[in-house]
Amino acid sequence: MQRDVIMAGFGGQGILLIGKMLAYAGMHAGKEVSWLPSYGPEMRGGTCNCTVVISDQPVGSPVIRSPRAVLAMNLPSLEKFEPNLRPGGLLLINTSLISRGSSRDDLNVVEVPANQIATELGNPRAANMVALGAYLGATDVVDLERVIEVIRETFAGKPALVDLNIEALRRGHQLGAAHKVAEA
Amino acid sequence: MTKKLMKGSEAIGEAAVQSGCKLFFGYPITPQNEIPEYMSMRLPQVGGTFVQAESEVAASNMIYGAAGSGERVMTSSSSPGISLMAEGISYLAGSELPVVIVNIVRAGPGLGGILPSQGDYFQATKGLGHGDFRVLVLAPWSVQEAADLVQDAFDLADYYRNPVMVLGDGLIGQMMEPVEFRSDRTPIKELPPKTWAATGCDGSRPTNIINSLFLDPEELERHNHKLKAKYDRMVADEIRVATYGAEGDFDVLIVAYGTVARVCSTAIDELREEGLRVALLRPITLFPFPYEAVREAAVQARAVLVVELSSGQMIEDVQLALARSRPVHFLNRMGGMLVSPDEVVAKAKAILDGRSAEVFHG
Amino acid sequence: MAETVFARPQALADVTTHYCPGCTHGVIHRLVAEVIDELGVRERTVGIAPVGCSVLAYNYFATDFHEAAHGRAPAVATGVKRARPDLIVFSYQGDGDLASIGMAEIIHCANRGEKVTVVFVNNAIYGMTGGQMAPTTLPGQVATTCQLGRDVATAGHPIRVAELISTLRTPAFVARASVHNPLVAVHAKEMLRRAFRYQVEGVCFSLVEILSTCPTNWGIPPAESTSWLEKNMLPYYPVGIFKTPESGSREPRPLPA
After folding, report:
1. Which tens digit of pLDDT belongs to each residue from C20-34?
2. Are C86 and C44 in contact, with CB atoms under 8 Å apart?
3. Which of B164, B223, B285, B342 is deepest in the core (most CB within 10 A)?
4. Which of B181, B215, B236 represents a domain boundary (last residue)?
5. How far is C256 from chain B (nearest CA, A)?
6. How far apart are CA C37 and CA B347, in angstroms?
7. 3-class state of residue A98 by DSSP
8. Residues B123, B260: one domain?
9. Which of B55, B88, B200 comes nearest C69 by C-beta?
């Protein structure tokens, strides 16, 4: 079975990082994975996205035109990727920065106030972890514990951030788990 | 050794280091900057040297000097930079020096764009510089295969005393996938000592001269024959292909290389789910090109579909292989646009339904 | 028993060169070979030949050699020296090779401070291709591509390579010499000796520009070419040392307050 997700937002929101962490966790779980970033002249501050594929089989195309899931951290990302989602796919919307809902009626939508939750936890920069948690909660692609291990590895040099990020991940996970989507 | 999640560019760099590459000369160009960046960090850790050259022209001549000294050396660039390296590559081929050159192809012509393309197929396989020479061209479809082929490339370069090019694209360079480096890897060829290297002469042998200049036409022709014999040995011994979904019968044979073949493999899965019999043949060596393998595989198929990120380059070799024995169809994107599995599925269905027209390139 | 007081240097191959009568490449080859012998480094010396009249230099020295593409000898030298820092690496280049097509390579090789030695032969003209204008061709000097004489309004002024290289801040030994008579040739050899010694001691990049004659393409008899050089080239290309690693560099002066 293959799972794939396009994660998208502003440069600086930590989109590529959570995509990599998901890929790492998938690899640690014994799955085949690929992580593919958008790359372009906008090195900083522009929009950025990455595609993560997690599969039981060797990954075929690492480029996904019609993804099973989209994580939109800002409005331009929602507008760019929502139309391509497969029918029945999972759409995670960061409602802290996006004021509109989905414009389609054939999607499973999870609204995640990612920045708001992260701010409540004391650091708005952890919004990406909240969003990643919500994706994990809704899909069960990888065990939460696997990702927590990756957080410990990733932030080994910054121990102060470990607990914050784990907490943000858990809060997002709870939110996502309330909207399970089997096929995304 | 355990698997590590690595960017293709980093895996290529690490594979070179694992192969005993001690020197890297390069010049920045997108989308391959992670290779020189990785080497600038990694080579000093293993007693090697990284030099940022003043241009690709200079870089290609620096690798000439280092290779002529008998050391394992690599450079990398992307399409416009490879054009500038054409000078050095021709001299390397003429002087029979082993180097590994990585081209992370971007869309052209000219400055073009920085997104993936396969527009350098002709350049790599048929015209990498002036004069009458060939380089081995290896085309990986995954990060793991890129790492494996870079390691093989060093062995092949040393064995044949010839440049070897690893031809990837921006996807290979930027993508992260799990990679494993085998600690028990042994060279794929028996490698003789480099007694020809210019490393100083104490008089116990004639001086070693690294050179491609032969002013006497008879002497140069002998040299040309020697090179040709070498290229013939490559053709005889080094062709590599892979297939996907070709175990049973099939009606359409797709021929594609590199990351495009990955896309096609996904399309083939989808087509098979619908009961449509389509298979993939993937050249891993672009020179030498697997003419025989294409011809043999196509015998089973009613039609052949070539998928490329170019206006049609490899398709000419496929047509040469088939000699009009099978209809050839073509699907392509250019400019940095990618072929999607959906497009491949649709094209294969059109061929099966008789809605796709045969093409002839050349 | 007779003592040998003059013999072919070991580093010079026992062959006849193809150089024209009156050309000073042969003298410069010999001086380089003598210096290599005297420093006792012949067995670990690797030369880099250019494209130009000295393209066949690899046949004239009894050391290992690389033949480089036109202008790229400093890049090839960089590759050799970085691969094998224990080798003594010298490039031997003419003015078209070094100062025209290879200007980027020489500047950056010097600027990186590659521990190699460059022997730069300046005869103010393209020799092998038949007397075309070089970057070092003097104002008013006739060449096949400036048959009315070099016009500085369109071709610019001749490039003084030694002076140019010496402006770089990276420590280096940069000198200019000439070999048009035995007396100045002694000085030229001393400059070469210093240049190679700096490399042997691992100190710095070194470049010796050596003024040379080209009777064939200047279109004057060999005997007159030495005086032509003295009269026309020496005033524009003064001999001497332009930079030593000890002399440091001319630091920029702050703007007056």
Report:
1. 999 999 999 999 999
2. yes
3. B164
4. B236
5. 35
6. 72
7. coil
8. no
9. B88
Residue pair B88/B99 in contact by the 8 Å Cβ criterion = no
Q: What pLDDT does C86 receive? A: 98
Q: CA–CA distance from B100 to each of B73, B77, B97, B173, B230 (Å)?
A: 7, 11, 10, 16, 17
Number of folded domains in chain B?
A: 2
What range defines the domain where residue B338 resides? Answer: 241-352
Task: Classify burial at C66, counting beta carbons within 10 Å of its beta carbon; exposed 0-12, middle 13-18, buried 19 or more.
Answer: buried
In angstroms, the CA A18 to CA B178 distance is: 17
Taking CA atoms, B186 is separated from A52, B190, B240, B319, in Å, by 33, 10, 19, 37
Q: Tens digit of pLDDT for each residue in C128-153?
A: 898 999 999 999 999 999 999 999 99
Q: How far apart are CA C70 and CA C50, in angstroms?
A: 6
Preferred mutation among B7, B37, B175, B280 to probe A, highest tally of A CBs within 10 A: B175
Q: What CATH number did the domain enclosing C203 receive?
A: 3.40.50.970
- In this complex, the residue of B5, B142, B267 whose CB is nearest that of residue A24 is B5
Cα separations in angstroms, B126 against A46, B33, B139, B205, B286: 39, 26, 15, 37, 10
Number of H helices, E strands in chain B: 12, 15
Using CB atoms, which chains have 3+ pairs under 8 A with C?
Answer: B
For residue B208, tell me if it sits in a domain: no
Q: What is the pLDDT of residues B235-254, one digit of tens each?
A: 999 999 999 999 989 999 99
Best mutation target, C64, C90, C105, to test chain B (most B CBs within 10 A):
C64
Interface residue B180 vs chain A (CB under 8 A): no
* Cross-chain Cβ contact B200/C87 below 8 Å: yes
**What is d(CA B146, CA B263) in angstroms, rounded to the nearest whole number?**
17
CATH number for the domain spanning B109: value is 3.40.50.970
B45-74 in b/e form (b: 16+ CB < 10 A) is eeebbbbebbbbbbbbbbbbbbbbbbbbbb
Kindly provide the ipTM of the predicted complex, given to two decimals.
0.91
pTM attached to this predicted model:
0.92
Which chains have 3+ CB pairs within 8 A of A?
B
For range B78-106, the mean pLDDT? 97
